[in-house]
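Morning F.,

Quick status update on the modeling queue. The single chain you submitted on Monday has been processed. Sequence for confirmation:
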Amino acid sequence: MTTQIAFLRAVNLGKRRVQMTRLKEIVEGLGYDDVWTHINSGNVIFSATGARGAVERRLEAAFESEFGFEVTTFVRTAAELRRAISFEPFKVTSGDTHFVTFLKGSLPPAERTALEALSNDFDTLVVKGRDVHWRMHGKSTDSKLKTKDWDAIVGQHQSTSRNMNMLVKLVDKLDQRYA
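Structure tokens below.
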């Protein structure tokens, strides 16, 4: 069994409501072990075997059946998450916001270059494998990136972002729980 973390895209926004207790029950109902959630933004941790893509598709089907809307899901192992948060592609200073954006798969070289080229004086994008590190010189709501430009490269609904501060706290909980 491997500790895995599922990051659900765009839940608990608008009408896309997901109760964390129900999310835990669904994942347990799929036969996964040691299931728990972290904050109310669609992060569920569990132990499982099997290929990442198969686990993602199984979770997505169960979530859509239960909640009545698509719930694109991005699974990372605990080791992959630790590597993602230890990667430091740029200096983050006071007032900056740092997100890690999870992708379904690695981008081909041309798309990787195109995504990184969306960087500007406010936003810096660095792609590493299936993750994009995104630094903003200020609040994320002030980003100059346009969704249509991002989606043209990555695909609509093919990414979800989490704040680095939250990810560090999640890894700390993982380390405490499984030490």
